[in-house]
Design brief:
It comes from Xylaria grammica. With 254 residues, the chain is of the alpha/beta class. The protein has a single domain, classed as 3-Layer(aba) Sandwich (Glutaredoxin), CATH 3.40.30.10. Helices cover 47% and strands 13% of the residues. It is built from eleven helices and six strands. It has helices at residues 2-5, 8-31, 40-48, 61-66, 87-90, 95-108, 126-132, 165-174, 193-196, 200-212, 215-239, and strands at 53-55, 77-84, 116-121, 138-144, 152-157, 181-182. A hairpin with a 7-residue loop joins strand 4 and strand 5. It is globular and about 75 Å long. It starts with a helix and ends in a 15-residue tail after the last helix.
Length: 254
Amino acid sequence: MLAAADSPDYQAQFQEYLGPAQVYFEKIASAIPSPNKYDPVAAAEAKAGSNKIDIIGLHNWKETLYEPVTPGATTPEEWWVLVTGGNKTCFGHCGKVEAAFNETAGKFATEPDSPHMALLNCENQPVLCNAWSAPVGSLWIIDMLPEPSPINIFTRRLNLTTTTSDDLLQLQKDGVKTGAKEHDGVFHPFNGPLAQNGLSIPAGYVLWAFGLLPSWAFMILVSLFSRRMMAGRMEGQMHGGPRPAPTGQAAPRR
């Protein structure tokens, strides 16, 4: 199957269907009321303030991360993105780690060669968090290089109740990637197959929509779908008649 998927004929056929699929998903997304919230005034104040924190959302995350990258650069620009949330996504427990992150950003702002800092609030940007498969309370370390270079991403979970600014500063001194998990696979926002085929954001909408369904409703849908498939198979076997004899073997005697 993998060999067939890499064949030129399969790739050509996939690209043929990809365009209409993207248009179809875009039409669906435009018809759905947007769950995303973004306060441009607060974001501008955070960026221009002493902490110099970027607030990223569905509409600006990519250009924000690429903004400090110079063409032809070989040394990556390091970003620290804190994935945070509110009462629904973080049960109100992200306030302390977010405050520690803001305090750390203020200290980094006065130091040369410090990482760029950004916040992603899953309460306000559920589609983007689902598209990235980004859990709240995690720190994303992103090494940005000019397009189309591959982007390395490392993630590490932060303790929501005990993390302080000193802990984050110590992480930088010790090497923030030490002990971090490399983020790769389908949901990688740059290198993943969904992102490379323009399906990352549609997948985020799908996962967000599934998240709205209560567990009992999802189980009912799965049960109805499986019963419909089984009924179709049984009907086909009942009305399909006797199976033909296998090639090279004599037909059974009557």
